[in-house]
Amino acid sequence: MICIAKCRSALPPALGGEIEVPTLSEEAENKLGKVGIDIPDGTQHGKTFRLRGKGIKGVRSSYPGDLYCHVAVETPVKLTEHQRKLMKDFDESIRKGGAKHSPNEETWGDKLKKFFTA
Hints:
single chain
């Protein structure tokens, strides 16, 4: 089993798409290969994807193990004024949409369960 943390900007996980992940290729040992994985839109920081058969071979087995890819979303730094304005406009539009854009917010059902268990 191999674990990789793949750092990306916030847009590909939010919009979905394909990202390339480095792997150990079987053709040339000790050289990195790449495999493309499709990530669904709305992927959150910390999500783990399992790539079966893309890891290294076990000590007592002839088949390769699994590769685990952890998504790590990077926060942009050193923004220009135009980029800052776009980010502020985006943040404002998300806030107007309510909690439906934030998966970590409590849902109506969660609030109801909390009410009856408290």
